[in-house]
Amino acid sequence: MTFSIHGLAVSRGIAIGRAVLVASSRADVAHYFVDASQVEAEIQRVRASRNAVTDEITRLQRELPSDAPNELAALLDVHLMLLQDEQLISGVKGWISERHYNAEWALTTQYEMIARQFDEMEDEYLRERKADLEQVVERILRHMKGVASPVQPQSQSSRKLQQDLLLDDTMDVPLILVAHDMSPADMLQFKQSLFVGFATDVGGRTSHTAIVARSMHIPAVVGARSASQLIKQDDWVIIDGDAGVLIVDPSPIILAEYGFKQRQGELERERLNRLLHTPALTLDGQKIELLANIEMPEDTTGAVKAGAVGVGLFRSEFLFMGRIGNLPDEQEQYLAYRQAIEGMQGLPVTIRTVDIGADKPLDRHTKAQETHLNPALGLRAIRWSLADPPMFLTQLRAILRAAAHGQVNLLVPMLAHAAEIRQTMSLIDHARATLDNKGVPYGPVKLGAMIEIPAAALTLKLFLKYFDFLSIGTNDLIQYTLAIDRADEAVAHLYDPCHPAVLRLVADTIAECNAQGKGVSVCGEMAGDASMTRLLLGLGLRSFSMHPSQILAVKQEILRADASKLKVWSQRVIDSEDPASLL
User: Fold this and answer.
1) Is 208 part of the annotated catalytic residue set?
2) Of the residues 143, 208, 405, 547, which is catalytic?
3) Among 3.40.50.970, 1.10.274.10, 3.90.850.10, 3.40.640.10, what is the CATH number of 36-145?
4) Would you call 523 a catalytic residue per the annotation?
5) What is the mean pLDDT of residues 395-403?
6) In this predicted structure, what is the pLDDT of residue 325?
7) Tally of CA atoms within 13 A in the half-sphere of 62 that contains its CB
């Protein structure tokens, strides 16, 4: 009987195939106590499996195909760092030595301890890094059990055997992977296998699984909760990566309908690819700037290939992840920023200062163990940076030094008060003075502020007095304007980019920047949503920053739009009680 499972749409496209289920290694972990004489042997079991996983990922890095997405290589680095994490290693040894837990029990217990710290993190991107830790633990457990990776590359004979068993000797039927979660290493092996799409029980739009899926253009749905329990081995499954829906055991009519959609999607991608070298100009000749959002320096390759004319948002916090007690120093940050700048081949790069908070201080302070009643409103982003001047000055010096190698814009997140602005400016001056005193070369930067708090959007003249440009972070602006935790499933349906209050704040910010001749861009999810492109153009936006995979779809909307004729219509939309109905 046909039924649907809803999740999150994270990578567009349609995939149709037979289900291959992958069980979680943590589901059947044995729990027992060991004798004192067995303690060292249990520790050695964990150590040996961890080393085996390290060797496996290192080998995968060496053997990365030339067409593998840059995101994948960087995410493998993250897993290697987690494998060496002292908190994980010492914690497991402690459970075995002090409590006499068996190795598997100790490993899963320590995972749960660390996972709780991730759960308390407000920032969605950092909170979802718990999935990376879980994937590392899963991989260690599989080695301890002697079980292979769930997505091992298959030999020709094993592929035929799998097809004979699963696909009734139909050699051309593709496979859909259904799992609790997938690691970056599994994703690499996924690319080398027969799978054409995947679905996971967990994950979010900013999970590494989602990021890699988008970069590889694999239709995917994550956060589908009980998909791996509801779907049976060999079920026919349709993945609708546009709507975030899994259709299980579809009828012949539904199969035919989605087969048509799949072919239409392929034709659409071919049409979009022809726009790669077409300038982003509206019908009335307005030049539009299409920029890329990146998480790591290596992402610049994909940004250039997608036709981005610069980086509108480099989320520098990625450099700080997995660095418990050992944050990147000035030289390491400088080299990373320089790599991104050089990777953009002379195009501008906007680096956002670190956006983490007191609820996720990377274990550098005892505050990490405190309970935060409302971390979304706590010491995060620039508030956290201003509370730790040495850390902030280190990052500022690194960015300024990197600016000697190309066009750099420095973007500050979550400002709301004049005092914060002045303190930030003072620290930037301090960083310059320090470099001057040391005779270290550095370059000029344009200074910008994120508009993601309603208070900032309502005091634009104050911001434009100090900053060269503004960048509207629509994800947080929506969250704070509507008092909606976008990660809370109970209220997620109320998270509405088209709410009149949100659109009014966006419109006013764009209008004020244009009136004062200051640059303004949108760098949140709204910028990459092609259904919002015409509205933003009508409101006067001329700079969009998004994931590289979204650039061509947005460019197509731009090429079809007459910006001058959209102005009156866009005003009618934001004045409406139900703006979404007019889009």
Assistant:
1) yes
2) 208
3) 1.10.274.10
4) yes
5) 98
6) 60
7) 6
